[in-house]
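Problem statement: downstream parser choked on a complex file, so we are re-checking the raw output for the zinc ion run. The parser issue turned out to be on our end (a line-ending mismatch), but while we're here, posting the original submission so the record is complete.
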Amino acid sequence: MSIRGVELIKAMNHYAPPSLAVDNDRIGLQVGDPEAEVKGVLVTLDVNEEVVDEAIQRNANWIIAHHAVIFHPLKAVRTDQPAGRMFAKLLKHDINVYVAHTNLDAADEGVNVVLAEKLGLQHLRVLISYREEKLKKLVVTVPVSHHEQVLDAVCAAGAGWIGKYSHCTFNVEGTGTFMPREGTSPFIGQQGELEKVQEIRLETILPDHLQEQVIQAMLAAHPYEEVAYDLYPLELKGKKLGFGRIGQLPEQTTLLDFARTVKQSYQLDGLKAVGEWSNPVRRVAILGGSGGRYIHEAKQAGADVYITGDIDYHTAQEAEAIGLNLLDVGHHVEHHVVDRVRHILQRQLGEAVSVFASRVNTNPFRFIGG
Ligand SMILES: [Zn+2]
């Protein structure tokens, strides 16, 4: 059975919903055709010519990337220059590129959660929250016989969560009425006769971004030809959404020991640190990528140490001045998410398609020294 691009995109959107991305981020399908068949998928942090060659060699006609291939407006596609050659190669070999950037940073199993998990951080919270989850209430009436089936379906699709409790619903029995008219083929009743049925009014809550899949699951499980349901927005405050995470180490340690742990856990050739090696460390903030502009937020959130990349000289001095320890692990550390994306996609798409993690090292930095 072949899978089309739209189904791959749907799987990615489920994992890293586009609604999580910051405004004006360049995400989604950037090269190719959503209807294109998916022969194989290559997951990568960056796309360059070498990665495209790898995709061709593995017969993967879809690339899932974290960093956009088109960020600034393209001014030219010159095949005597590296970027132009890469685009030409993508098009020539019918390779499609889909990008999940800040939505993947913010996702529940995205870049920052993967990085936090590798360090064993506990009690994770969002570090930089720029949005709150919008919640909706779904009310649907179901004949008693199909109540459990519909309840299970909407909960399996992601409705019914309050905190760490799943299957949160309210149900009350009552009488539904309807009259099937010409052209109907009703599940219960006859055309032109008023029907009274014992039904259950099922109420539950769902996050906005899951609306489509919950409604689809509900309709598929519901026996009626025309289903009566309401969906309304709630004023309740939902979960905080955003990137970066802050959490706690199981035990306090020193900056030096922690830096060694980080280097090993992320398999780094080296890292840069700000702060006294003997400083105590327990609360850890992490933001994969370029997080220099958020040092004050990390400090304010109570972080003993802030792990990020692309720290410049003056930002490092500023962190030192406000008493925030820093570990600059480089931007490339985000590549650790690649294997998680591969795993999640493979699970969602099934065995029909192979999903690969790129083996190309796109980190331009090298280290020398002991
Ligand atoms: Zn990045």
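For whoever reads this later: The chain has eleven helices and 17 strands.
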